[in-house]
Design brief:
Layout: H1 7-58, H2 65-73, H3 84-95, H4 102-126, H5 132-155, H6 158-181, H7 186-214
Helix pairs in contact: 4-5, 4-7, 5-6, 6-7
């Protein structure tokens, strides 16, 4: 036989419903607080992002793109005569930490390092290796090359040059990793070896530039 709900049963149902409502209200309040905190956090991130972009712009980071693009088009415009003998002599002098013209050397090896990476990516596309290498060497490669050009040859403050050298050392390490990972394809191996050599010679020229700069106290800190 069916049982009729007792008074105690109704009370239990009412209490369960009340507890469910309280739980729902708690969840709703927690969701509102989470939404408010997220909105506040996003607002702060947006402010930090805007402040960061403003500070980068104020530092003059965006002022030398046309000059850098000109160096990409004509990297050897300041070289009077380009022969294998002169290139060999410059490489040997650089490896001895005695580059003849460290600014010109830094600029040329920076440009060559960028181009060797792009050429490797184009060869990789020809062999069906996909677009990831091209994005790495073209987009990120351009950003790194410009940042190093701006920090070491345009801005020339001790602090900016120091962090540029940190970026450059990291870049050399990444180039070495690329060499290790490219042994399966001879064309990639050759291009990455040339890129690593260019990055290493650029780093030596950069070290000489930084050393010369820090020894001149009248320049900007």
């Amino acid at each position: 036989p069916s049982r009729r709900p007792t008074l105690q049963g109704f009370r239990q149902m009412a209490e369960t419903k009340s507890e469910a409502n309280k739980f729902g209200e708690s969840v709703g309040k927690a969701a509102e607080k989470t939404a408010e905190a997220t909105k506040s956090g996003l607002g702060k991130l947006q402010e930090l992002g805007s402040d960061g972009v403003a500070k980068v712009k104020e530092s003059g980071y965006f002022d030398n793109f046309s000059e850098f693009n000109g160096e990409l088009v004509r990297p050897f415009k300041q070289v009077e005569e380009l022969t294998l003998t002169k290139v060999k002599d410059e490489v040997v002098a650089t490896l001895k930490l005695q580059p003849k013209e460290p600014e010109h050397g830094f600029n040329i090896w920076n440009v060559l390092s960028f181009y060797f990476g792009v050429l490797e990516s184009l060869l990789g596309l020809a062999f069906g290796l996909g677009l990831l290498s091209l994005l790495w060497n073209l987009l990120l490669g351009y950003f790194i090359a410009y940042t190093l050009f701006w920090g070491m040859l345009c801005k020339k403050t001790k602090k900016i040059m120091f962090w540029s050298m940190v970026l450059l050392v990291t870049y050399v390490v990444l180039c070495a990793v690329e060499v290790v990972l490219s042994f399966t394809l001879i064309s990639s191996l050759i291009m990455y070896l040339l890129k690593l050599l260019s990055a290493l010679l650029m780093a030596i020229n950069g070290y000489v530039l930084y050393k010369n700069h820090t020894s001149m106290p009248l320049l900007d800190p």
